[in-house]
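From the pipeline queue, job 12 of 40. The input is one protein chain; the requested action is below.

Action: predict structure.
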Amino acid sequence: MRKFLTLSLLAASLAAPAFAAQGLQINGTFIPQARIDSAVKQMTAQGQPDSPQLRQAARDRVVLTELLRQEAMKKGLDKSPDYRNELENLQSALLANLYVRDFMKSHPVSEADVRAEYDRMKVQMARKEYRARHILVPSQEEAAKVLEQLKKGARFEDLARQYSIDTGSKANGGDLGFVDPAQLVPEFSGAMTKLAKGQITQTPVKSQFGWHIIQLTDTKEADFPALDAVRAQLEQQIQGQRFD
């Protein structure tokens, strides 16, 4: 419906806008090229790629807005209290935004600032990941039997394939890969993080899923994003802190 009204209004008001050297003439009103460029900038800032089609859409938006403005003026809407109140609000918001942009421009973030913040976050967010195997069984009695076989020299991987009810890991010998302890149930992660590399829990660990026998196989420092991957986010964060 809105598209239909737009086309109707365009047809009723003018066949096509007159193109000036820099800008447009719409029903005798000159629209500078800067307004069209501003519309393009707004659309690309929203993530739309610059293209001839986008620039035409920006031009169409400016034309339609001017046509609607002219119709509003004919009805005297520019003299209404609603218009004056909204205009004051828009002016306040615009000046506030311009002040923020001016502050950001006059307080640029240096490479040293970004690297210092990156190093600080890297230390603050440093965490360890654990790689473990487990054998999950439905009862404490069965867990005790599995532990007994491990003590007699049975291979952990073989028993996991034979007894574990965790279908996601049993085919891999109970291997869970590297995980963040925070992603696991507390009972499991609490027992796992107390183990030394290669060590197996001496008693079964109960969780909501059943009874676990856990073996810690490795640990490592968790990967941290490369600086270039988070540079824009860090710059915004630093600027925001300064502005606050």
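Job complete. The longest strand covers residues 210-221.
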